[in-house]
Amino acid sequence: MVVINSIAKGIVIDHIRAGNGMRVLAHLNIDTSRNTVAFIMNAASKKHGRKDLIKIENITDVDLTVLGLIDHNATVNIIEDHIIAEKIKLRLPETVTDVIKCRNPRCVASSEAGISHIFRLVDEDAKEYRCEYCDDIVKAGEY
Amino acid sequence: MNLKGRNLLEPLDFSVEETESLFALAGRVMDAPRDFCDACRGRLLATLFYEPSTRTRFSFEAAMLRLGGQVIGFSEPGSSSVAKGESIADTIRTVACYADIAVIRHPKEGAPRVAAMNTDMPVINAGDGGHQHPTQTLTDLLTIKRARGGFEDLTVGVCGDLKFGRTVHSLIRALSRYSGIRFALISPEELRVPDYVRKEVLEKADTPFWETEDLAEAMPSLDVLYMTRVQRERFFNEEDYIRLKDSYILDAEKLRRARSDMMVLHPLPRVNEIAAEVDADPRAFYFRQAKNGMYIRMALIMALLGI
Which domains does chain B have, with CATH numbers? Predict the structure, then answer.
């Protein structure tokens, strides 16, 4: 069994849907050459059977906005002095840039080089986002 | 009304009040066009047409010339740096060095927004793929307003290609802001309005609408019939185009079922969806509509330039 020690200070992102952790890590833009990051895949989970988990040591100011879009069931705890100092409730971000790619072949974002794919939240309950350019609607998780 | 420096990318970029002010200005231009013949002297309009257009480009050019301004631009991308692979961002930044205001038509949806994001110069969307065509919408609204006096309590039938027809999407958005509007969405199954129009525009505004494939059945209940062309250039598949292109043709026989004061509108160009025999009918408004297009564009250019 793999054993990862608890951290004194940092962020623990738990209950990530198994298989989704790599994507979460990629979008957090953490400099892994300077920070200690533990990334556990397919850990046993009472809730979900299997889960991914990320622990980031010593930094707490990570931009987590995109996390709500990629996996809103994940839990985020900020650790200070070995204890949970704050639990962060994930929400769907109002605007996401270069996370969702527009799949409308008629959209300018699909052909014009160098422009960002921008999506804005239009319906939180339905988890729907709209492309800034072509108005195409996509559901969070279906892109 | 202070629209100076603003863009017009979507039909709802201006509030109802701002749109009404624009109609008032267009009305003053129509009443006394000579009073405005020097309004834009010394100003330059750039027309960036990445897709063929006759009516829209001519009406913008005519509008600027009638205001005493001048026009530069290209009417197909092959004759510009676009053919060398220049980005929209670089093209608009360069054009902004020379011109005061730009009009852009592009086959890709959202291209005018990309242009607007890269310049402080006012940008007008003259049609982006199957998406939006807000100056056509202003033209349509002005035509209805001048004939009807307003937009309250109207049943508007939109007929033909409701899936790719950008003029239809823009018109539905704009009219949904007025109370008492009802829509009959008349199209074949394959060319129904996109989901975002149904959900985000009609359902959100609580605008009554019904979808039907039967033009003749809807005809007696309509105050306005907005005809559109099934556009070959919006189809990836030629077979689908051929199958659907003659879905709805308005002729004198069908028009007999319509009210005596119903207005027939069409963004033009038409191919065969309105028979020539309809042109002489007093209910045919589409050529007056084309003329109104120039006047509303004159008003728009002046408003965005702060004149």
Answer: 16-132+293-305 (3.40.50.1370), 134-290 (3.40.50.1370)
